[in-house]
Amino acid sequence: MPRPPEATTFARPSMVGRGLSWVADYVYAGRRQLAVLSFPWAIGRPRPAPPAWQRGEPGLPEVYLIPGVYEHWTFLRPLGDALASAGHRVRVVHGLGVNRRTIASTSERLAGLLARTPAPDAGRVLVAHSKGGLIGKHLLVSSGAAARAAAAAAAGGDPAEGAAATTDGGRPLGLVGLVAVATPFGGSRLARLFVVPSIRAFSPKDETILTLGRETSVNGRIVSVFGPWDPHIPEGSALDGATNIAVPTSGHFRVLGARSTARAVLDGIAVLTGTVPAAD
Q1: How far is the first Cα of the chain from the last one, in angstroms, to the nearest whole number?
Q2: Which residues contact 207 (CB under 8 A, 6 or more apart)?
Q3: DSSP 243
Q4: Model confidence over 18-39: pLDDT tens digits?
Q5: SS3 state of residue 208
Q6: Strands 222-226, 175-181: parallel, antiparallel or unpaired by DSSP?
Q7: Which of 79, 180, 255, 257 is the most buried (most CB within 10 A)?
């Protein structure tokens, strides 16, 4: 039985600590970017996920990994390995490249992918990093999963079952909810310093960011995981109405490889599936 999610907050590091964390963050990101070059290579076809990810316990939800901008799915391999070791079937979304498309168009692609394959009885959970969390929230909104969850809860039913019953093209998506790591739900003021559209899209004044921010009813189907300091998101990743879980590792990238983050993600999945209660 997973333990309840931590309600603990961790102290923001000192100026020196932030500097060291910033360097460690980019060293970690560089190493993970090189993971796309590791075996097995797949020239001319989608890179296969590890065979161990295809197995899992039928009583646990299937997990789809959604990377951040300029990230291939291999960037999330350590987290995927931890989820697979815990008994989850882990899936990846092929065809995203390095995830530079708009949040809305990627959300639409993800919905189509989920609709093409039958949902398992235990449902599906999206586990995402950074921009991937915004894509996941967009899908919760656009598919109506959050609205169904709220209706089920109001009627005294199971909100997870309500969310999972959402359909696309007549087939249930099985989407139980989203666990997002280091996601700029309110945008990042640093995005305005860039001219690249795929980065400027994270501005707090971007229309998609503003629209998603207004959709607060969906937040009950979201678990947000974050460290005490994120150099890419000065505003932080806490989300009103969501289950917020703080972990002790700072950084935007390095937090993905921390054992505490893997534990928090597993706890978040348990919250969404009703195995443990959400934190106050």
Answers
A1: 19
A2: none
A3: E
A4: 788 888 888 988 888 887 776 6
A5: helix
A6: parallel
A7: 180
